[in-house]
Automatic annotation (TrEMBL):
<keyword id="KW-0479">Metal-binding</keyword>
<dbReference type="GO" id="GO:0016491">
    <property type="term" value="F:oxidoreductase activity"/>
</dbReference>
<feature type="domain" description="2Fe-2S ferredoxin-type">
    <location>
        <begin position="1"/>
        <end position="76"/>
    </location>
</feature>
<dbReference type="InterPro" id="IPR012675">
    <property type="entry name" value="Beta-grasp_dom_sf"/>
</dbReference>
<dbReference type="InterPro" id="IPR001041">
    <property type="entry name" value="2Fe-2S_ferredoxin-type"/>
</dbReference>
<keyword id="KW-0411">Iron-sulfur</keyword>
<dbReference type="Pfam" id="PF00111">
    <property type="entry name" value="Fer2"/>
</dbReference>
<keyword id="KW-0001">2Fe-2S</keyword>
<dbReference type="InterPro" id="IPR051452">
    <property type="entry name" value="Diverse_Oxidoreductases"/>
</dbReference>
<protein>
    <submittedName>
        <fullName>Isoquinoline 1-oxidoreductase, alpha subunit</fullName>
    </submittedName>
</protein>
<dbReference type="InterPro" id="IPR006058">
    <property type="entry name" value="2Fe2S_fd_BS"/>
</dbReference>
<dbReference type="InterPro" id="IPR036884">
    <property type="entry name" value="2Fe-2S-bd_dom_sf"/>
</dbReference>
<dbReference type="Pfam" id="PF01799">
    <property type="entry name" value="Fer2_2"/>
</dbReference>
<dbReference type="InterPro" id="IPR036010">
    <property type="entry name" value="2Fe-2S_ferredoxin-like_sf"/>
</dbReference>
<dbReference type="GO" id="GO:0046872">
    <property type="term" value="F:metal ion binding"/>
</dbReference>
<dbReference type="GO" id="GO:0051537">
    <property type="term" value="F:2 iron, 2 sulfur cluster binding"/>
</dbReference>
<keyword id="KW-0560">Oxidoreductase</keyword>
Length: 179
């Protein structure tokens, strides 16, 4: 059994230690915000934060995570108030939406490490694939998120409509698969 922390909750997965984190999150914990894209680590749709680093969850096994801390898009903010989420909506980044959770997680880690990233910093740190090609808006959103986080910018709009934040952030009762 593998034990580590996911979204500030201790988990114990009764799965093969070679199971990619992506599938443990999606299948055992029902945290489906982490997307399956390519399965080879090329696209970044499955990006999560592990101990402060942006990591592609398809490339790390649960056996490698003993005692570590994982954050998924579901725990970034319960009410979509994280600066990256707010800037993403304000800058109209999403189109198809498939890559968005991975991009948002990578951007959140970048801003945590570099509170004032330049466009070249963003290009270097964010190597996720967006099939819709919204890269210019992504760069603008990340820079705006940095300004929001530092208090140098303010948004007057509420989070985008959709799933009630309370419903999206409900705790998952069972974090291990049924036998």
């Amino acid at each position: 059994m593998t034990r580590f922390t996911v979204n500030d909750r201790p988990v114990e997965y009764r799965m093969d230690e070679d199971t990619p984190l992506l599938w443990a999150l999606r299948d055992a914990s029902n945290l489906t915000g982490t997307k399956y894209g390519c399965g080879t680590g090329d696209c970044g749709a499955c990006m999560v934060e592990i101990d402060g680093e942006a990591i592609r969850s398809c490339l790390v096994t649960i056996g490698e995570l003993e005692g570590r801390f994982v954050t998924t898009i579901e725990a970034l903010s319960r009410d979509r108030s994280h600066p990256v989420q707010q800037a993403w909506a304000a800058e109209n980044v999403p189109q198809c939406g498939f890559c968005q959770s991975g991009m948002i997680m990578a951007a959140a880690v970048l801003i945590k490490k570099n509170p004032d990233p330049s466009k070249s910093d963003i290009d270097e740190a964010i190597n996720n694939v967006c099939r819709c090609g919204t890269y210019p808006r992504i760069r603008e959103a990340i820079q705006r998120a940095a300004r929001l986080a530092s208090g140098d910018d303010v948004l007057s709009a509420a989070p985008p409509p959709g799933i009630d934040p309370e419903d999206a952030a409900k705790a998952v009762p069972a974090l291990t698969p049924k036998d």
